[in-house]
Give the backbone structure.
Amino acid sequence: MIKHLVKSIREYKKPTILTPIFMILEVAMEITIPFLVAKLIDEGVNANDTKAIFIIGAELLITALLSLFFGVQSGKNAAIASAGFAKNLRQDMYGKMQKYSFFNIDKFSTSSIVTRLTTDVTNVQMAFMMIIRGAVRAPITIICALVMSFTINPKVALIFLIASPILGGLLILIAKTVHPIFEKVFRTYDKLNNVVQENVRGVRVVKSFVKEDAEISKFDKVSQTIYENFYRAEKLLALNNPLMQFTVYTCITLISWFGAKAIVAGSLTTGELTSLITYAMQILSSLMLVSMVFVMITMSLESARRIVEILEEVPDLDNPEKPVMEVKNGDIEFKNVSFSYVKDKKKLCLQNINLRIKSGETIGIIGGTGSSKSSLVQLIPRLYDVTEGELKVGGVNVKDYDIKTLRDAVSMVLQKNELFSGTIKENLRWGNENATDDEIEEACKLAQADEFINGFIDKYDTHIEQGGTNVSGGQKQRLCIARALLKKPKILILDDSTSAVDTKTDSLIRKAFAEKIPNTTKIIIAQRISSVQDSDQIIVLDNGKINGIGTHEELLKSNSIYQEVYYSQVKAGEEECQKA
Ligand SMILES: Nc1ncnc2c1ncn2[C@@H]1O[C@H](COP(=O)(O)OP(=O)(O)O)[C@@H](O)[C@H]1O
Ligand SMILES: [Mg+2]
């Protein structure tokens, strides 16, 4: 796990190393100060030596200034190192996620990815800062202060040796109890993000179902859980301070008690007693720091684990070693293809699919929801890999193609299509970065989108909101079709992509396809028989299996599912006509 994280330090190695070095120098100065103070009291004040007071005073001033300088340097480097580390970590995670296949993406929920990229990275960043500063500072301070105290007066210094482990043990005990609570908090964060995200994405649905109150109470419940856990954790952590104060003051009292006796006996000077007290403070506050570092590290371990999970996920689709760089034509062949989303042969969602589609044909796919229509076509651009059997495009197994080459040749309008914030033109250029304005217009004409685009004031420069909320469902679908067309694909797949388009426009789109892109293989998944009626072949899918293949007339004669769908739609159509 550490190995994965350390990789992200990269160009910030220098500040990462400089931080503890400056830290050590700062500690050295801090340890020297009580020593000089003791000297100042004993050799200057008590001896009434003005010259010594000036000299030692000057030494003190320089030491203090150096300590300040080193402290600032260490802080600055720590900030650069930890912020840089976090930046690299985010970039690495994001970069990795872009390589994910659909199979990989299925494993993480969107909200958990968001928490991982934000909160989790911030936690690890803080822990990283604590480690390069605190984890170095505390032990060194403790060791140096102990050594100094023992050289001054071993007997009195024994007090530290007894107090430190007791306090240290207690602090660690607190940290250990707190850790599982924090773990819970982070898991709840995921839930909170999930609720927020779902609500914000689906705000229109929430409103139309008047579910605001339910959503609010769902949110409140999660917030309440976070509040309770944080409260419990912080309550325990709050014990740290009084515990520490109690130990400090007990130690100081004890030191003063034994110190006073030693002074009377002549084995200790006043100056030495002052420095012993300062060392006591330093040791105990370092212990406090240790416990904080401990809490921070345990807290961030869970975050680190979640980050590494993203980094370690192996992209499930890889380019072959000698990829085929050209898709010859739009032939498609399924040979005994079976498919499972979880790569489990017992949970197949497509079984024994055998199909031959010739380049340029128009294929319709009909079937109830959940009959695996989308699953079937997603295999063609290799969004998922087949679990069994073989799938060929242009006569070559899809696994042998360079993935980009294949996906450029197989353009798919996903059922859950997305537009991104930006102008219409920018959105369409996702299909082809170098498309000229003429090409864009032509694609839009084919998709029957140019008419409504020209109706907008800014035409092709009209701004699309995130998720395409400012265009209608049918308009969005047509923009997505145009975007797919801009790739000039050999195979075009429309997964229920005209469901929100009226029947007339729908038929215009199909007519344009038939006339303008006759050599492109067109696969059309639809609910309406009218959308697939004049296809060369229609595939009826049922429960992940092919129930029938044929032309409209053939299926109407022989396939019961097809007949049922057809007559129910014709009847519904007639009723509508009568009403009208
Ligand atoms: N990403 C996914 N992970 C796991 N199962 C899925 C996923 N997508 C779809 N399924 C399941 O596969 C089956 C077929 O779904 P799908 O191909 O989307 O059907 P259709 O497009 O015909 O409505 C359904 O049972 C669905 O629950
Ligand atoms: Mg579907």
